[in-house]
Amino acid sequence: MKAMGVFALMLIFGLFSADLPFSSARTIFNVLDYGAKADGKTDDSNAFSAAWKAACSAATQNPTVMVPSSKDFLVYPLTFHGPCKSSNISFKVIGTINAPSSPSVWRGRNARRWLIFHGVTGLLITGNGTFNGHGSEWWDLSCADHPNMIGCATVLPMALNIISCKQSTISDIYTIDSAVFHVVVNQSSDILVKNMHITAPESSPNTDGIHVEHSQNVLVNNSVIATGDDCVSIGELSSNITVSYITCGPGHGVSIGSLGKYGNSVKVEDIHVKKVNFKGTTNGVRIKTWQIGLGYVRKISFEHITLESVKNPIYIDQNYCDINGTRGNCEPKSTGVHISEVTYDDIVGTSSSKRAINLNCSQSVACTGIYLSNIKIESDKSGQQVISECTNAHGTNSGVVQPKSCLQS
């Protein structure tokens, strides 16, 4: 009887513990079970933090933090720390996660980043849900758009930050109206970002869609991005980055840079951009480096690109500078980032400006190894012609190149 009693107690405890929110036997960690109100007004940060800590410490395979559908969650700046006990962990967003909309409530908090996943291996963020950055009030304060405003904001929160993560994926997520960058991959490796839908008004400042820096082995794939800045931007100390099957526009195109702003040594290589459709963007494929920078950008390819009324379809600016808060009118410098081994192949479509190819390279550190092949860019205005302009750009071309190549041998 005594043995039966112990067994019965164990059975009863097992049945009840299966429903406890902190049970190590669970695989689903629903933020509602940890106290989230999901009314869009109450701060649910503690519930999200508790659900993550429970999932991250769980001794189960592929624990999942669940953000359920048809719910609105208000979450203040928060970091989800790794490493986790499981080799894989999921953060499944089916509902909507909202940032605080008023900049005033960010005082005393990390105003540079909203949500951070740090030091996690095997992370999957997915679910067809939405991250809403509620950036409109920030844009009204941004020094980028209001440089003469007293008290304008120089630091604005980037929405979704993947920092020091490995072997991780972000897929099937909507991000809207971030104050600045929507998705940031920083100091990470072996990262896949796919099937993303990223939107912000065309007039919103610095709202890059996906920004990659200090990272290696990153694939950005099969996404639709329409923002007020670069659809995809690639920063310093990045290598083996592929951007493919992207619909971009409105926005500023796909950019490598800007690089070398602080006179530092730049190391960017093996960047491949292909199968991108640009619609009404200010730039197509662009490399931009500051005059005072050092180092190199090399082994770059832009291939199978289509253009629809793009202002600067092919653009290198090796003379990026800032004079009294204004870009342009740069005086020659003896420094520069060396840009080399850059391929442009199979780029077709229309330009909204006369200058379709602009390779503005440094007088001190020339662009070398530029290759143009199968380029056919026409004006989007009937009867008008487009031109190419090169400054100290050296390389070769083959096949059809329209407008005519201006490369020096």
TrEMBL record:
<feature type="signal peptide">
    <location>
        <begin position="1"/>
        <end position="25"/>
    </location>
</feature>
<keyword id="KW-0134">Cell wall</keyword>
<keyword id="KW-0964">Secreted</keyword>
<keyword id="KW-0677">Repeat</keyword>
<dbReference type="Pfam" id="PF00295">
    <property type="entry name" value="Glyco_hydro_28"/>
</dbReference>
<protein>
    <recommendedName>
        <fullName>endo-polygalacturonase</fullName>
        <ecNumber>3.2.1.15</ecNumber>
    </recommendedName>
</protein>
<dbReference type="GO" id="GO:0005975">
    <property type="term" value="P:carbohydrate metabolic process"/>
</dbReference>
<keyword id="KW-0732">Signal</keyword>
<dbReference type="InterPro" id="IPR012334">
    <property type="entry name" value="Pectin_lyas_fold"/>
</dbReference>
<keyword id="KW-0326">Glycosidase</keyword>
<dbReference type="InterPro" id="IPR011050">
    <property type="entry name" value="Pectin_lyase_fold/virulence"/>
</dbReference>
<dbReference type="GO" id="GO:0004650">
    <property type="term" value="F:polygalacturonase activity"/>
</dbReference>
<dbReference type="InterPro" id="IPR006626">
    <property type="entry name" value="PbH1"/>
</dbReference>
<keyword id="KW-0961">Cell wall biogenesis/degradation</keyword>
<dbReference type="InterPro" id="IPR000743">
    <property type="entry name" value="Glyco_hydro_28"/>
</dbReference>
<keyword id="KW-0378">Hydrolase</keyword>
<comment type="similarity">
    <text>Belongs to the glycosyl hydrolase 28 family.</text>
</comment>
<dbReference type="GO" id="GO:0071555">
    <property type="term" value="P:cell wall organization"/>
</dbReference>
